[in-house]
TrEMBL record:
<dbReference type="Pfam" id="PF00550">
    <property type="entry name" value="PP-binding"/>
</dbReference>
<feature type="domain" description="Carrier">
    <location>
        <begin position="7"/>
        <end position="82"/>
    </location>
</feature>
<dbReference type="InterPro" id="IPR009081">
    <property type="entry name" value="PP-bd_ACP"/>
</dbReference>
<protein>
    <recommendedName>
        <fullName>Carrier domain-containing protein</fullName>
    </recommendedName>
</protein>
<dbReference type="InterPro" id="IPR036736">
    <property type="entry name" value="ACP-like_sf"/>
</dbReference>
Length: 82
């Protein structure tokens, strides 16, 4: 399941970057969202979370914010019960 979530995150990040005229660098599980090489800001990240909820039917933040800084950490939130 983590691989499919990772692929979905990569797809959406690519779309977000392209919409901004940016090129998404190759993603790894260690790619950092806001302080790394990804061309996204906090609004883009919020958009990503909404799209993930719509496409997966899961909301790991329903009970409150859960800390994550990397693509791998976010993917893991969708593979364990929230």
């Amino acid at each position: 399941m983590t691989d499919s979530i990772f692929a979905l995150i990569a797809e959406e990040l690519g779309r977000i970057a392209a919409d901004k005229g940016e090129v998404l660098p190759p993603l790894t599980a260690d790619s950092r969202f806001l302080d790394g090489d990804l061309p996204i800001d906090s609004l883009d990240l919020a958009t990503l979370l909404v799209v993930l909820e719509q496409r997966t039917g899961q909301d790991p933040f329903r009970e409150g914010f859960r800390q994550f800084t990397t693509v791998g950490e976010l993917a893991a939130l969708y593979t364990v019960p929230a």
